[in-house]
Amino acid sequence: MNYIYDLVLNFKSNFIEFYEWNKVDEFTYIEKIPIFRVTDIGMKEILDYRIRINNNLLKQIYNKTYTNNTKISYSLLVTDMERVIALKFNDEGKLIGKSSLLIDEEDAVIEEVEMYDLEIFDYVKLDNICDDKFLTRREKEVKNSILNEINFLYDKKKYDEINYLYYEIFSKKKSIKDEYNSLIDIINNNCFDKIFYLEKIIKMIKEKSY
Known about the structure:
This protein has 210 residues and is an alpha+beta fold. It folds into two domains: 2-130, no CATH class; 137-209, no CATH class. 42% of the residues lie in helices and 24% in strands. The termini are far apart.
């Protein structure tokens, strides 16, 4: 297995390009991390889908990533020689975090692995996320936040708040299930005029509750 040394990563559930990193982000300083060279198609699918790697690969990378004070259980880099992406997985092999690299570090990694052979990177595709690929960091964060909030309200049976949010958007009422599904559709379809309005309403509700 090949390794890369001394990188700065910024793992997020939604992929964030390095130029959208913020000073308040929780950066991870990597001392050592495995790297796999993948095909162009493989890299595209890694960016466009949520994936799950197989158990053999999961065991292969277990505790092989070292930070400045601990280890990351399941993490690695992939490169198609055009770009480099860091990936983090849970113990089921599901992808839970991605990070871009700083541009100078990415260039250095590509130069270093130029002579490496393609490796078998065994994974299965789960759901498609390519619709989010061109969203800004702000849009991704708000979308994720509102989705979590609406799921929380629905799971906890806080139907009055679901009713209120739905009525503010559509000025009518439906069954709670239909209202919930309609609100989820707004988020999944990237209707950001309504998503930002939902953010504003939810913020007002929370401020009134204090």
